[in-house]
Amino acid sequence: MNGAQALMKTLADAGVEVCFSNPGTSEMHFVAALDSEPRMRAVLALFEGVATGAADGYARMADKPAATLLHLGCGLGNGLANLHNARKGKVPVVNIVGDHATYHVKFDAQLQSDIETVARNVSPNFVRTSSTTAQLSQDVVDAIVAARGLPGQVATLILPADVSWGEGGVPCPPPPMVAPPAAGDEVIAAVATAIRSGTQVAMLLGGRALREPALLAAARIAQQHGVRLFAETFPTRMERGAGLPPVERIAYMAELASVQLTGHSHLILVDTKSPVSFFAYPGKKSDLVPEGCEVITLASPSQDAAGSLEKLAQALDATRATPALQHFLRPSRPRGRLNAAKVCKAVGHLLPENAILIDEGITSTLMLAALTAGAPRHDFITLTGGAIGQGLPNAVGAAVACPDRPVIALIGDGTAMYTIQSLWTMAREKLDVTAIIFNNASYSVLNVELDRVGAEQGGAKAKSQLDLHGPVLDFARLAQGMGVHAARADSSEAFCKAFEYALAHRGPHLIEAVVPEALNRTKRKVLPWLLKSLPNLPQGAAQLIKRKIAP
Fold this sequence. Notes:
Rossmann fold, single chain, 18 strands, six-stranded parallel beta sheet
């Protein structure tokens, strides 16, 4: 075997069965080796950000890493944003980056760059350049171990061309799986004491704590002892819907999150970090934990979240408590002129059983969580790292991981254009994805932020940077040009008809929802005033405003 063939067999033996690729010259021996391993599926992306985002989406649903194949430092740079999202989501990815042959580096060719420095932004704990063909397979094993351990991470292996084509490659056996530990007895006792203290206690769930076993254990504790359950703002993957415990997500806006957390004396963290605001704002706190609230970590991201919650439930005599579960409840079918809320209402009305719902609608999906809460059980994926352009590639990866489940991705018009090439991969692979693009011809969230950060009222030049008119994008035509069936809707009736058609016919579909901005100019004027008033209002009134803005 040459190095690439040994690498390929080592990956497949360890259960890495998909490679999302955008190769170049230095990776041709890896490309050729794909035919030597029938267990490895190769999925071509037309842009590196699609490949990395697809690997992220795949791992979120498959609970194991895929591989990427990227071309040199420039290709890695193009894929960096979605690797950032994977890192923030604690998602396992084996990120393989081709490099020049070792002896060619000294010539500083046109595409020569410092790949390791670029990679450390998204792979802080594992970046390695393989130096010999004989060592390559062990390097691959080490990368797999690093990626799939808890917390999951992006492990970057840099593959020089001569190491790939060199003879004498020897596959390595798959690495053993190591079970993560649950919380220790002292931590369990400390958390149990806090919960029994008679004060207001909240539990913030993230990562794997938002899967069914952990959710049920947390819900039993909540029911038995009056603990309030929250989910992190942008979950990596959340299991929700009818028959599962409902969990309220922490709001994106810091002012609203503060309303949710005010009054609690203890905040218990389970597979997540202490909440902070997404950005800094003049005169506002970055740390969202209320003053005087004690933060206790039950399970860190490197520990067994479900096992820790079960252990805590036993300590609190809550294992037989009946958890509160979400009742089946769909919204009615929307009618009339289409807007963002009606799109979300239609999704809640028609969402099929066992769907995978991906939310990157930004301001357009403010109502999505509330309108799908009682829909049939589904998985929910969000923009964990905040780098836009994740949703469409995540849909590609999720559909590859779960070919028998419908994938529905709700995407803003601005973010869609970052990785619109995903549509071509959906068509090529015949993936069962329905992409819903909200076309409001605006970077609407930035119009909101312009007011929130206290910037001066923007003039014509400033406003032009947040506006997508002139020309208005035509997503239906873009989709058709990449082989995806598409429809355009500006009424609720037309949207529901297009959505029903997409759900009834397997394969990729795009629905362009032509809508006004969810937060129009009047609402944007009022919003900063409302947010500033919250600390001075009675808690009940503040809670009411929070539910109205972000239910």
